[in-house]
Amino acid sequence: MSFAGPSVGPGGGTVRRAFEFGRTYVVRPKGRHQATIVWLHGLGDNGSRKLLISFETHPLFFFVLFAIWSQLLETFPLPNIKWICPTAPTQPITIFGGFPSTAWFDVGDLSEDAPDDIEGLDAAAAHVANLLSTEPADIKLGVGGFSMGAATLLYSATCFTHGKYGNGNPYPANLSVVVGLSGWLPCSKTLKNKIGQDEATRRAASLPILLCHGKGDDVVPYKFGEKSSRTLSLNGFQDMSFKSYNGLGHYTIPEEMEEVCAWLTSKLGLDSRST
Fold first, then answer.
1. Which of 77, 79, 116, 213 could make an S-S bridge to 225, C-beta 3.0–4.6 Å?
2. How far apart are alpha carbons 118 and 152 in whole angstroms?
3. Which phi and psi (to 5°) does residue 73 adopt?
4. pLDDT tens digit string along 179-232?
5. How many angstroms separate the CA atoms of 35 and 80, rounded?
6. How wide is the angle at C-alpha 138 spanned by C-alphas 162 and 260, nearest 5°?
7. CB of 93 closer than 8 Å to CB of 106
8. 92 forms bridges with which residues in the sheet?
9. Is the torsion defined by CA of 171, 228, 6, 199 positive or negative?
10. Do the beta carbons of residue 66 and residue 51 sit within 8 Å?
11. Distance (Å, rounded) from C-alpha 66 to C-alpha 173?
12. Predicted TM-score of the model (pTM)
């Protein structure tokens, strides 16, 4: 599936970036279907069941992560959840010197003043909402992800509360839960402008969010996760949980996954019935 958005080209003219999303993998529920969650991978990764290598980097560190997200999600003791694992489009990445990689949006630097790729974020958020659009009306919807995937889903959460994307188009999905591992909050400086309306305030207050971050993360530093949690809380996201893990780097561990499973079971009101 592809999305396109306007951008300014040479001479001030408007051009459109095309976003060709890759293959989507689905882990179907083993029990009674109660919830569907779109899970987003990190930079350089994909949604495949196959063993893959994810390259995460910033100016001082280079990190290689082995991940099989769809296979890992299949092992969760959450038989009532359907997992949708899409693959990001391949596009030039500024932090890689323009080298192409699978990525939900372009990123140049992880810093307070780094510009946000609103066009890329909007396209990714729209792709996630589209994947959720065909789910039955009685199914609870959620988003989750790791690293850049976590950043994308947090942007999606702010679009949901605001009722629209950054480009002004309406956001259609009704989110029930948000889970972000080792990520950060894009567009944090403009979040206050999005939560000024009564309906946006209500949605922010009632949306459960779980953020987890390792204190030993040398790719997306712990301070970014901690500050993202604090920013969300200060802007009306009242059901905000932040979990930290001593010594954990830019990867996941069983303790973290157990907390995610327990949190999802509680927030989604899941049962273990097979029919």
1. 213
2. 11
3. -60, -30
4. 999 999 999 888 877 666 778 889 999 999 999 999 999 999 999 999 999 999
5. 6
6. 70
7. yes
8. 100
9. positive
10. yes
11. 31
12. 0.86
